[in-house]
């Protein structure tokens, strides 16, 4: 279980004006400024949950993950991960967690990933038999067989990320902190990573806290999302509810046998896109049934599908709403 | 899940795994190892040139004869093998970790972070220096017609370990500074240049330099005292003082490391 209560992290940063004179002045006097990276957030995550941790750049996501994994001391507030205080960095705690950072790697650059695996085996004190079993399982799930013997520097980004995941999970952690694990990967590789994270979570009942700017990751993996902006929590709940609250509309995608006039579509809903024979309509959730019936009876329909609005749009509206709220206050 | 408590001998297994990894890392570049080995021998030859020049004109310098001086250079070469073979490469690796932010991965491991960064890289080519040092010491003792007693040998070995502890502690202090001032490359080169002075017996330095090289940067402890021990000329109080000094350096470096780590974990992002 992860319990976070009124967590704060304030960085003191030096600031100075541009220019040589300011540079010289800063030698004598360096004014500082407090930056509230995380500003009093609270949440609980149960064992085995997969939670998306979202927010724009600089929202405080990585700082929070680093506090949860014991890399940073909180300025105030309390946090507990699987019964431990992370900042104490106890051995038993470090053996229960893992942190995967899509933009940094732990694999030894000049050596094959198998060498990193062996090193991690010694560091995490994994018994030989358990190590062989886990490695075999990870190799199968992530299709690593052809990769583990090649020097890391010769692997593609996607291949490296698969090996990173294996290196990070060899000790079978119970809590996974994943910071942008699919960044820079192609669509197929992203799907592989997502499937793997889900499989690991289900197999070991592991808790997963995932940050990602790729909303497909979140939609595929996280039934619940926690959203922070400017260090404050602005949403904690089911992803579906967030979509319904921010964008209380569905999208009707229509394929028509022949073009129709815009006037024929006007009273069905808002036209989001229209080309010769394809139309996307935005329809309020409450009116969906009636509009679909009308479409079926009045338009030369070939195909129809009902979709949620893109999650990117949901998030954009959510952050815009939060910014407007800040401006107003 | 892996057991929460470390099984017995975990530290040793970690050390072995680190040594294995860094050896594998070096052996990836076989030609480089060979080149480095040849270069080490060349450096030893250049280290001897000033001694030949000085002793070409006089029989002794500050009470040190030519073979006695060779004995100091042998200790210097041995210590340099450790400095350049394991301490410096690991130190540079940590500085890179701090700059790139990958130290996070070190701190996330359930093992002592200082141990992990201290042995992250070795240069096996420096073994050439170890062999050269033994050959040089053997030659010097042969010229002196002296076979050290087991007690002298034990004292020399103990003092050498103390010298290693001091050298390692200075490296850890430099690493600790790297957490605050990220660019410390110059500090490493400065230390390398000062360390070069340890090839001379400490008694040739006078005044302020003598004080600095005995107490602040204890070059005397590093090469002169082990050589004196082999010659049977080291006084007991000096030996005990050297060991105590090494202990103080070790404790100070550990404190500096822990303080830097606290600073890192409370400030990095």
Can you walk through the features of this model?
The complex is a heterodimer of chains A (329) and B (269). Chain A has 329 residues and is α/β, with parallel strands linked by helices. Chain A has two domains: 2-20 and 40-243, Rossmann fold (3-Layer(aba) Sandwich); 248-307, ACT-like. Chain A, domain 2 (Alpha-Beta Plaits, 2-Layer Sandwich). Chain A has helices spanning 20-28, 61-68, 91-94, 113-123, 128-142, 157-169, 187-204, 215-221, 239-246, 262-266, 288-298, 311-328, and strands spanning 2-14, 32-45, 50-54, 76-81, 97-101, 175-179, 207-211, 224-229, 232-238, 249-256, 270-274, 278-284, 301-307. Chain B has one domain (10-267). Chain B has eleven helices and two strands, in the order ααββααααααααα. In chain B, a hairpin with a 2-residue loop joins strand 1 and strand 2. Chain B is globular. Classes of the chains: A alpha/beta (329), B mainly alpha (269).
Any guess at the CATH architecture of the largest domain in chain A? Answer: 3-Layer(aba) Sandwich
The number of E-state strands of chain B comes to: 2
Low-confidence stretches of chain B: none
Instruction: Encode the helix/strand succession of chain A as letters.
Output: EHEEHEHEHHHEHEHEEHEHEEHEH
Largest sheet of chain A: 6 strands, mixed
Integer count of domains of chain A: 2
**Named CATH topology of the largest domain in chain A:** Rossmann fold
Radius of gyration of chain B: 20 Å
Report helical residue fraction of chain B. over 70%
User: What is the average of the pLDDT values of chain B?
Assistant: 82
Q: Major sheet of chain B: size, sense and barrel closure?
A: 2 strands, antiparallel
